[in-house]
Specification:
Order of helices and strands: HEEEHEEHHHEEEEHHHHHH
Structural class: alpha+beta
Strand order of the largest sheet: 1-2-3-5-4
Distance between the termini: 49 Å
Shape: globular
Low-confidence stretches: none
Strand content: 5-15%
Mean pLDDT: 92
Largest sheet: 5 strands, antiparallel
Number of helices: 11
Length: 329
């Protein structure tokens, strides 16, 4: 059963953020993901209340990550980047109320596309343009550190394989990983020589499209330093793909061309960019699978296994298209 925000809780949060008392019950908009989104109406304004489901481990570092992401979003607003930034109160964006954590944003009417959506020509132009402006800004923020190299160790995956030996998708992926992990480590380490602060997660769930054709970026929680060309490859693949079996080369190329109108590319090896783009995803997969092994919750295991398999399909899709990339840039 979903534990929903009550009217009294909404009143308390409004008071904490120093906004007017709501005129009606909060309306649950989205609970399909790990966090809940509510629409809260006050006299003259509407707000999105995002309730985070933060696991208890490392909660302080997660809070710091979210607050830092909102601060980065606010800095990009100064460069006319269309980002939705939470309301800050007493130097903090994330507010705690009885053990639950919230961000509050001005409400924005619009829609988020499905994960199997392939970008339209209008969206392509916006996406390439957005990413180039983020990278060209070259903002500097005190306390935000550049990414340091972490080695992906295949021996960890060998241990994990014993736990997933009956899952063909996962066990085959682990077998194939042995042949490419060195390339991923080498390419990722090389990519760290050039870093800028950016969004780092411009996927289909983090852009709100409006009826007038404009858009806003959300989901700045993972923002920080990244290699600009590596992020471009990640974004182009995501928006040109249905996430299953198809990558539209025309959409991919159009995103690259839109980007190049604003910022010049610095590329030595396109293949290395693809391998570097897989580093963080594979690191995330490993952590996800290690946590899964420790769980006794059958529903959690089923849900997480499905997510892991979907991510593996996306990784394989990128690897299968490496040979085409020279034609797409």
């Amino acid at each position: 059963m979903i534990n929903l925000m009550t009217y009294q809780e909404a009143i308390k949060l409004c008071k904490l953020f120093e906004i007017y008392k709501p005129t009606k019950e909060p309306e649950l908009i989205d609970a399909a993901h790990k966090h809940k989104i509510y629409k809260v109406t006050t006299p003259g304004n509407k707000y999105a209340f995002k309730e985070f489901n933060l696991p208890p481990e490392n909660i302080e570092s997660q809070i710091e990550l979210i607050n830092r992401g909102q601060f980065i979003a606010s800095k990009f607003q100064e460069f006319k980047v269309d980002s939705i930034c939470g309301i800050s109160e007493h130097g903090s964006y994330l507010m705690e109320n009885e053990g639950r954590y919230y961000l509050i944003y001005p409400w924005t009417e619009g829609f988020v596309v499905d994960t199997d959506h392939i970008a339209t020509p209008t969206q392509v132009e916006y996406i390439g343009n957005l990413l180039a402006r983020l990278h060209k800004a070259k903002i500097k923020i005190k306390g935000v550190k550049k990414v340091e190299f972490t080695l992906l160790d295949y021996s960890k995956w060998v241990e994990l394989k014993t736990e997933f030996i009956d899952n063909t998708i996962i066990s085959n992926f682990i077998d194939n990983l042995k042949n490419i992990l060195e390339k991923i480590n080498t390419s990722f380490e090389k990519s760290l020589q050039s870093q800028v602060i950016s969004h780092r997660n411009i996927n289909k769930s983090n852009l709100i499209w409006q009826d007038n054709g404009n858009f806003c970026t959300i989901g700045w929680d993972w923002s920080g330093y990244t290699n600009p060309e590596v992020e471009l490859v990640q974004v182009a693949f995501d928006w040109a793909s249905d996430g299953k079996e198809t990558v539209d080369p025309e959409v991919f190329k159009a995103i690259i061309e839109s980007y190049k109108k604003i910022r010049k590319l610095n590329i030595e090896s396109i293949e290395e960019l693809v391998y570097a783009s897989l580093h963080d995803t594979i690191n995330w997969l490993q952590a996800k699978m290690e946590k899964l092994v420790e769980s006794n919750d059958a529903d959690f295991v089923d849900t997480e296994t499905k997510e892991i398999q979907d991510v593996i399909i996306v990784i394989n899709l990128r690897l299968e298209n490496i040979n085409h990339l020279n034609k797409w840039f």
